[in-house]
Amino acid sequence: xxxxxxxxxxxxxxxxxVLVDENLVTVGLTDFRLYxxxxxxxxxxxxxxxxxxxxxxxFSIESAxxxxxxxxxxxxxxxxxxxxxxxxxxxxxxxxxxEGWIVKIEMENxxxxxxxxxxxxxxxxx
Length: 126
What we know:
Blueprint: E1 9-11, E2 16-21, E3 24-29, H1 31-37, E4 40-44, E5 51-52, E6 57-63, E7 67-71, E8 76-81, H2 84-87, H3 91-94, E9 103-107, H4 119-125
Antiparallel strand pairs: 1-2, 2-3, 3-9, 4-6, 5-8, 6-7, 8-9
């Protein structure tokens, strides 16, 4: 199967993609991870304003096959949650890189990005 990767994204070991715009990061799940999970049924999204720490679980996604614990790829404050996903969790599977973004985090330290993979490394992993 052919999975999408992009040189503009960073990737976590846990299957999250990260798009960086200065200190704002948009985070979602890769199509590879979503393929492993199957159809997304329920999201327990975090609250806006919540401080998250890199490497810590801060919400979960329930799918037909598994529960995915979403691990914070960076430390920072959640400034926006994709509210559309509450009523339309299937958009994650249908459009994970556009309408399927999950949270936006104001990153505290860009050094956190050094622990994430770039596209070539991620492609080798999957």
